[in-house]
Amino acid sequence: MTSQADFLQPPRPAVWLVNLFTSAEEAESILGDLLEEYFHLVSKSGVAFARNWYWRQTVKTIAHLVGAGFRVAPWLTTAAAVGGFLLLRFVSGLPERAIFAVLHRYQVFEHHFNGYVFFATNGIAIGHVIVSMFVGCIVAWRSREGRWLLR
Amino acid sequence: MSGRDYLGEFEHIIVLALLRLDDRAYGVSVRQEIEFRTNREVSIGAVYATLDRLETKGFVKSHRGDPTPERGGRSKRFVRVTAKGVAAVNRTQRALQRMTEGLDLIRTYS
User: What is the ipTM of this complex?
Assistant: First the structure.
């Protein structure tokens, strides 16, 4: 359950994403700045508005940092993105195979038809999202390494 | 003189904000100053990416402040314009002035 104190904090996935795309030194200033403005907005305009603002800032900030990473280390960032794409192509079929293996193993089709339909449609989409996020994290991590190397 | 001696549009805006804020210039104050004066939403990432570029060129210098509780115990990164940065902003301003001299921008293009 989410407590009141947790609810007032900025969205955790957004904080995690900023951390992922920045070096430790950069994260200290950027996350500190975001938190300072976030709390100011919470008291001025409410939590919902502040959380929206935090997400907007996170998305734009990541886009700029990736762009800056590309300018500083174009080959390494490109290699990370291409490597990530190839990895995605390589592993994208795995969730599908795993889901169908589980469905057949427990004979879901015969016993729980609705469950079968749900997993056969949404399960694959969820699997793809998980794989894409996993690959995205690897790309971000490699891009960040590149920026550190060239500093 | 190379293109590197001039400032890009956003670099120019950031350096002017730093000069206005003087020793109070850090991520939040720079972002808010730009939003207030230009009426355009700026991301903190854009500010930091530009500050990094300006620091690499030697136009600005940064140092860390003390950690504060309202920032979750994180420190501020204060930024100041160097003499080289002031020269670059003057050069860019003069170039823009020379380029707009004699142009009646409001009457001709509005």
Answer: 0.86
Q: To 10 degrees, the CA torsion angle through A24, A30, A35, A40?
A: 160
Burial class (CB in 10 A: 0-12, 13-18, 19+), A116: middle
The contact set of A with B (CB < 8 A) is: 26, 28-37, 39, 56-57, 60-65, 67-68, 71
Q: Is the pLDDT at A57 greater than 90, yes or no?
A: yes
Query: Residue A102 has which token pair?
Result: 């589980």
DSSP conformation letters of B34-74: HHHHH-----HHHHHHHHHHHHHHTSEEEEE---BGGGTTB
* DSSP tag of A120: I
> Computed over its alpha carbons, how large is the radius of gyration of chain A?
20
Q: Which of B27, B46, B53 sits opposite A33 (nearest CB)?
A: B27
pTM above 0.80, yes or no: no
> What residue in A sits closest to B79 (Cα-Cα)?
A29
Mean pLDDT of all residues in B68-90: 94
Phi, psi of B102 (to 5 degrees): 85, -5
pLDDT in tens, B2-56: 656 899 999 999 999 999 999 999 999 999 999 999 999 899 999 999 999 999 9
